[in-house]
Write a structure and sequence with these properties.
By secondary structure, the chain is α/β, with parallel strands linked by helices. The chain is built from 3 helices and 7 strands. The radius of gyration is 16 Å and the shape is globular.
Length: 119
């Protein structure tokens, strides 16, 4: 288990595990980039899952009707092949770039980021 003050080493750090954050994992996964998500809530899905899991949502492109729970489940299924790492119940306080991400000979998409979280 990672210590709270230990840097997260990943291709992409996503703050927020709501629908947009979950879809970002999918898009990044298509580019073969690994993702970590941090969210203050104790489960993925953001406000859709937390505030209205059973309420109908009518404004998701391509889906005439879905609930917050249904949308979250669909997104979780979509990102499963990419094995994202979740840091739930944690809050980001600072973000610090560590090192120079544009080192010759290295993949320019990858860089170290140190995130300080609190509980």
């Amino acid at each position: 288990m990672r210590a709270v003050n230990e840097p997260i080493k990943t291709d992409a750090l996503i703050i927020g595990a709501g629908p947009c954050g979950l879809f970002a994992v999918f898009e990044l996964g298509l580019l073969d980039m690994k993702s970590h998500l941090i969210d203050i809530l104790d489960k993925p899905g953001g406000q859709c899952a937390e505030l209205y899991p059973a309420k109908p949502i009518y404004d998701i492109p391509g889906i005439p009707y879905v609930t917050g729970h249904g949308l979250t489940e669909a997104l979780m299924g979509q990102i499963k092949p990419f094995n994202p790492v979740f840091h739930l119940g944690e809050m980001v306080e600072t973000i610090e770039k560590v090192g120079d991400p544009l080192v010759p000979g290295e993949d320019r998409r990858r860089q170290a980021v140190r995130v300080q979280e609190s509980w």
